[in-house]
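Student:
Attend to each token:
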Amino acid sequence: MHTLRNPLTYINELLYILLFFKVILFHSFTDTPLSSGVFSTSIGFLLACYGLSFLFSGKWRLAFSGLISLLVSFVFLSNAVYLDYYSSPITLSIFGQMANLGGLGDSITYLFKFRYLLFVVDLVVLPFFLWSTFPYTKKRSMVKGVIPFLTLGLLFLVMKPAKLIFVDGMENPVQAYDSLDHVVQYGLIGHHMLDSYSYVRDRNYKLSDDDRKRIGTVFAAERDPADHPYKTYGKGKNLIMIQVESLQSFVLNEEIGGKEITPTMNRMMKHSLSFPHFYAQTIAGNSSDAEFLTQTALYPLKSGSVFFRYPSNTYRSIGNSLKKDGYSTLGVHADEKTFWNRHLMYPSLGFEDYKTIEQFPQKELVGMGVGDKEMFTETAGILKEQPSPFYSLIVTLTNHMPYDLPVEKQSLSLPKEVNGTLLGDYLQTVRYTDEAIGLFLKELESDGLLEDSIIVLYGDHNGIFERDKSLIEKWKGKSISTEEWYREYATVPFMIYNPGIKGKEIDAYGGQVDVYPTIASIMGTSYTSGLGENLLGSPSGTVVIPSGGYVTKSLVIGKDGIVEGLGEEEKEMLSTSELIIKGNYLHDSE
């Protein structure tokens, strides 16, 4: 008669079975497909780790497997939260941006869902088995444990790429424009394996002769001279660029509860060249990507922030160009100087000085840092003393997720269907920032700077996403199609203001990568090495929205339609931008 074995002797095996179920949970929670590659790669990884556990005996085997379970569970949990907001998985480069988390506690709490605890609930009981008197006397086993399971695991790991090469005839089975493609093809575990390989490979990337030819071909393309009425209109004037946190165009010229949401910006548009078909093109670097795009006319990296990965590169930027024209330059952001690594990146972008929270009185602290009203009021005083002509980039902060504004600072009376919702909170902080910009313009006018300044205002990225559109539908009392969303609600403002400009809408389709060439045309400064177009000239008529930031699939948007996915020309452009950055191409060109 056989004696039944204690089921707890299989606890090591149970840990790997539970990890496999977490794979399914992750793809269910994040709405990413469970492809054959997800199963083969995940099973291969788990079998390999299970085989390696046979290198240990007794509870050391449980400790090893428990560590694997802890690490993988944390990867699932953190990626589920991150992907829910940014539409892309975490990469090693993003782990290098962890310094930013200090000010993002409220945003992370808002995004966390209780169902994500399923990734770690089993780990609560694991210490009980490790430190209890529970007998676990498994012996080491190379022949029956390590070798067969490790071999089987490796076979499963190569199954998907082997199929793509030998069955589907694909030349590069791991090629993908964004990391979400790798999650779909190989699962989250496979994504992190491929990402780790790419990260190590790109650390000291050297441009090949072919790389340089590709870049040279793009830069050799004829530049549009763009002879328009405002060409060199701003030459010799001050330039003030305002990057507004999470600002979308749908709030402009809109009322709620009998009040304008953005009265200041509405007045500005009457004396602005404005671009209603303008889009954010940020990826994993979020706000820092917007700064990089607008200042350099290059696209951001598909993984991580340029500000963290390549802050010491040589860049041709608005700041560096205007410095050569005799401008003094100043960056302003009322958060800690290390946030998004700006203190290291801004000098490379041509900023001689950088004002941060440490230089402000901090009488008004709202959300992540100094409130926009204090920031703009203090900045106006700084600009009054700034050597002229000057260029200043001002990055706002208050209109940041989760849009938590004290009641006494709220100006809008919201209807009940909006009040207390994410949209309602967003509209309140937008109005607050609009009021802050109004104070700033009044200060500039009283200091005699307004007439002699070109003011450029744009949004850095979306704050309300397609997944939140039901809130707008309830407010507007209508349904919003996907196409209408991207045409009417996903755009961000871009306006070029001066009291002497007669308000005009420019019907060009463009994005943040086009800001530098457009502004260079108005300011009469040089633009020689970027991938953007002058939107006041004859642009191509389409704009690329890369995936990995706030859309799950790359989009090409134009007057004639919205196309999901990139054509060869768009892929080549984004790949070329990546090469310019990783290979520090402009350093050798100086």
